[in-house]
Amino acid sequence: MKAIIVDKWLKGPEELVVKNVDLPPEPKKGELQIQVKATGLNFFDILMVQGKYQIKPPFPFVPGGEFAGIVLKSTVPQFKAGDRVFGSGNSFAEVVNVSASNVLPMPKNFSFEEAAGLYITYPTSYSALVLRANLKAGEYCLVHAAAGGVGIAAVQIAKALGAKVIATAGTSEKLEIAKKFGADYAINYRDKDWPEQVKKITNGHGADVVYDPVGLVETR
């Protein structure tokens, strides 16, 4: 099968190489063997192959954080061969063995491509906005880095909750992406007066919830 194998820290994703490797062994108890049909690509995947992420797996390793695919073999009763699933694991390979605890059934109306980006980004933003911030309908939610995976998820979740979403990003193209996914307002955070723009939009009230998935934006 084909897989991306990292055996040294890379300068960037352009150095990734697809290799022919053996199929994984039989899945262990509690594992599934899955044919990967689509895989997500997150910012931390890039950091991981550069050795800049907080988790540094031993060499060699298969990168990739999330996927969608079809169960080939199962060792647990809740899944069977042929099930369409999505989950988290070393996903940059055609076939992977992963813990069944990191896998969920795919929503019936989702494509593999859609489900491949569902497992990590959306729970991250849901936990922040719903479980932590208790965002409510009618509140202003300021989402920084709103064109990234976690940012887009935050925009969509905030809109679904009935909030008014103010998105920030660093380019006009990224601002258009945020608006495409539901942002009510879009501000370039490179503008020195972006805090004043937020105050103007909110009639001086300011944002009720500020969501910063990157941690690199100055706040005051």
Automatic annotation (TrEMBL):
Pfam families: ADH_N, ADH_zinc_N. It comes from Rhizopus microsporus var. microsporus. InterPro entries: ADH-like_C (IPR013149), ADH-like_N (IPR013154), ER (IPR020843), GroES-like_sf (IPR011032), NAD(P)-bd_dom_sf (IPR036291), Quin_OxRdtase/zeta-crystal_CS (IPR002364), Zn-ADH-like_protein (IPR051397). It comes from the Eukaryota. One of its GO terms (molecular function) is oxidoreductase activity. SMART domains: PKS_ER (SM00829). Residues 12-219 form the Enoyl reductase (ER) domain. This is NAD(P)-binding protein. GO terms for cellular component: mitochondrion.
